Amino acid sequence: MSFTPLVLQPNLSYYPPTFTCCSKPSFGSREMPQRVLGSNFSRRRVGGIAAMVSILLAQEVIFGQEVAEGFELKMVAPNQAFEEALSEIRGHAQALLQIKSLIESESWGEAQKVLRKNSAYLKQDIYTIIQGIPGNERPELRKLYSNLFNNATRLDYAARDKDASRVWQCYDNIVVALNDILSRI
User: Fold this and answer.
1) I need a surface site. Which of 20, 105, 116, 180 has the fewest CB within 10 A?
2) Nearest 5°: phi and psi at 8?
3) What does the pLDDT look like over 155-181, one tens digit per residue?
């Protein structure tokens, strides 16, 4: 008995490729470029898709790992339980507060990297906890959550601008907001 290998080939007869004519309309005429083969995609949509694909593919190749850390796209850790977030929040808060030594040594770039990394973990934890508490307690925690991460963003910008006084002001606000959040959880 002989076996023939199974070869899978896509059937492209149902999805023909689409192309757009490349001629630019003149200012005198209001004509748009003709579409070839009945495309349903606008030029803006195709351009947007191409831009997103190029960003996602080039994230680590072109920019390198240190810049790619600035592109944090996920908001909530998948399948993170309420109890898990409660157990991890204090560790992530302590890790966030460890940027104090980097601020003191004025290592602005490193402070930004550590801030972005640790604030992302803390944001996931706090968001998960807010979703798990009763509805009447959520607005107060949401306000503190917003205050905390607005100050984290301001600290990031101040570190970029190397404005030490603003960095310290934002750091102090972060410490106060974290203490408020942790006391209410």
Assistant:
1) 105
2) -100, 125
3) 999 999 999 999 999 999 999 999 999
